[in-house]
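Quick one - first record:
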Amino acid sequence: SFITDSAPAATALASGYKTDNGVIGMDPSKRVRYKSISEMAHEKGIKVGIVTSVSLDHATPASFYAHQPSRKDYYEISWQLADSGFDYFAGGGFVQPTGKKKDKPSSIEYAKSKGYFFVNNRQDFLKLNKGTERVLVFNPVLDEDAALPYAMDREGKDMSLAELTEKGIELLDNPKGFFMMVEGGKIDWACHANDAAASIGDTLAFDEAVRKALAFAKKHPGETLVVVTGDHECGGMTLGFAGTGYESFFEKLLAQKGSFQAFDAKPASYKKTHTISNGRLEDVLPLVESFFGLKKLDGASKKTLEKLAALGDRASKDELALALSPREMKALEEAFKASLGGDQAKADDETAYLIYGGYEPLTIALTHILNNKAGIGWTSYSHTGVPVPVFASGRGQELFGGYYDNTDVAKKLMSILGFNPNFASR
């Protein structure tokens, strides 16, 4: 396929070899293991760290230490994490720490038995120092998929991706060097849900993590390389929408107060006591306005604002810019009914899936409206085949110019380290 999922994409970046969608660190036959660059580094005595904003057993981080026929083998992947012997794991938790049926030995306890010091609170995290040999860090607050909160939903007790990266550099730095893979995984998740504001928020959080890496590289010129790329594009996000033509209004995204995931929880109590027969969109419009800045205006209010805006009143212009049109109100009415009817737009309902992508209908309708007002469009709820950029800074950066296959990223990194792509075993 021209469109990859995260498992083969990360496998390519980690090992230099292709595989099928859904496969982690193995060939398409699911019998041959590929050896990742991180495993090669570990064998050479180079310290290794894996950091992510999603669960540590998710496809991208897993491809750097695990080998499984299915990315959904979360329990088995979490045990291979402990078996890897890598020095630093930090981010989300484990999706299935006691197996699919929750009847197996704890993956966390197994990691402890393999010498990992487990941390899941800010106080102990900040106390970590070079005296700790192996570290497993979970953020204290995890969502239902064992991931960190979105950056725009983060609270004081949460660890940021930048903090996890900075601590990793502190613990891994040594005369023999280190290799660290840092993933801003929730950028992808926000794009799956077509939430531009959440995606931008997590991209900025990832940018802060990159800054930590570049700050270290600046102190160690000539011996450090920082490479930034994506394993794929997601959502078909475009700067440009038919309704805004050649104009862009990205500042409108600032009206959104949290991620799509945070808004999902807001009308939950209302949905418990209301159905299509007695629910009214007007009941939740105040919530919509406070969270997204989107507002329904009556005729008189609109005329008043238009007069003030014509006189140069900025606040009136801003309010008009986020006013809901009749077309948008109709879309919200349909989404509201779908939400109350329990229609989560499953894949077997083609029309509903094309509109809502399997997400909460009202939330998706709202993010689409705000995104479109800002001049942002989407084509998919899945990955796309759009090329992704590669940025490199430091020793060997000249190797990363031009267009090339995703497997070449691993090969270029390996050439700099003196490694060769190879199979681990049959």
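second record:
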Amino acid sequence: MQVKSKNIKSLSIIIIFAIFFLSPQIFQRSLIVANDWLFHMNRYYETSMQIQTGHYNYFQSLFGFNQSGRIINAMYGADFAYFAGAILSLVKSWFHFQLILNFLCFFSAGFSMYLLAKSARISENVSLFCGIIYMGTPLVIWWSTTQGFTGVGAAFLPFAFIPAVKMVQNPRNPIQPLLFGGVIALLLSIHVFTAFLAVIAIIPFFCIGFYRAQNKIVMLINAMLAVIIAICLSMNTFVAMLEVQSNTLIMPLVARDLYGGGTFLSTGAMDYNNFGLILSTLFLIQLVVTISQWKELTTLEKVINVTGLLFLIVSSKYFPWNHLTDWFPSLLSIQFLRRLASIPLVLLVLGFGITIDRGIQMVKNIHFKKASLISLSVIALLSTTNGWQLIENQARRWNSSEPLSGDTRAAEILEDDENKVRAALSDSDLSKAFTVSQKPTSDYLPTNTNLQNGYSAYSKEILHNDLNLNKEVTAKSELKLTWDSNQSDEENILLPVIIYNNSYVELNGEMLSSEDYTLSEIGSLILSNNHQKNTVIVGYQPSTLFSISLFIKFISIALVVIYLLYQLFKKLKKTSKPKNKRTRS
């Protein structure tokens, strides 16, 4: 009972801190519209409208992204997009939706880090400290302030290291397939890049665990089972991405250089690339402890600290990235080195927690222990206040003359009146939010050329297409476009809709083959001008393999739920049995 009481207390404190991070927005009723807001909110608006109307289309954008039919969610965490869309369908407010998503992000970060620390056998108070510190780290804050989606992935990342810690801790049973496969599947459903990073960072834990395992064959079998579980639970993600990539796609813009986006240590305030005084001190302590006390460290501490420090160097300006990208230009697709910083943030905070906890346990003086816990509390408060300040700076813009964040560089501003901007973003008609600004993002558009940057083409052909037409969604979840070709004297008509390999096009009731139309360099549909009223229907026919993948996914989820309920039933039945009482004769 005492253990449960401590857990509830820690959980409550994590919730309080999550609300603390939301307070700048709550108190100012502020919506933060930053650089990636348009991209991600279009994604969630799409799934929300699909849920509300019942017109489901896993691939095409029927409502968001200017009803262009382009594929985004299938390439970018569709499972989480539908989860977020369900929330948006319920609240029908961008402000409340942002508060809920931000709360989930902060709470998940704190709770997952707390559970990871507990799995590493760190004491309750220090585990809570680790959770609170992690909530205020730059990457987690990044989602709230700029809608950088890596922040959401970072919030769930600590879950992935719980099975990694168990690999080293438990030589008898290093891998629990459902736990390991389940957390990787969770990350894949949210952010594929974060899942990829997690798998790489877990390799050292796996190698050490395999070396220490009492039965290496069983460990390998369980590892394969974990892989199968992860694949089955994420089958739709893999198959959809492979299917869409059968097209030649315009990938997200590569960085000009990686050095500029590298992280660094400092003695100042924390920022997105700058770890600030507290985290920098914490990381340096772990570096010194690892080097000076190597022989005294446990195997688990060694693998945590070394892996964390290696990723810290790789994600920083202290690594010669610009020289490396001269030899391997494809590395520029990483875009921002801060994305790699999620690994050291998790592992070095965890390693610091182990170091501090061991130090506190070694000292028997109760007053010293109390002083240590007070010091940790002060450090946690200072760190979270730093993160809170970053959020407050962004939230303050909402009531200024420029409600849209200053980092919306690539967005096209459609409305200059700040009152109209705030009104549109606060309207119960969520689509009005997309009338104040728009962003010509070209990610995952199909191309028949070597086009690397489709921003200008997308802006011209989709966002600023002069053709006067009407768009609606059919009962079969297709896009229906109607227009009068007499409005143009051009030989060809370019329609603001994107065509992929598996798309089908129907003109005035007649199914067209790929020879009956042409495509622009970003996949926009081009038809010959017949100088009459026309109706075009554009749909998407998923492969049979994708349908099978969805079936496998849902069956796998059902089996996992049944198994967990069975285990819960067994546990409840075991605890409910009355204990035999000895009677005196």
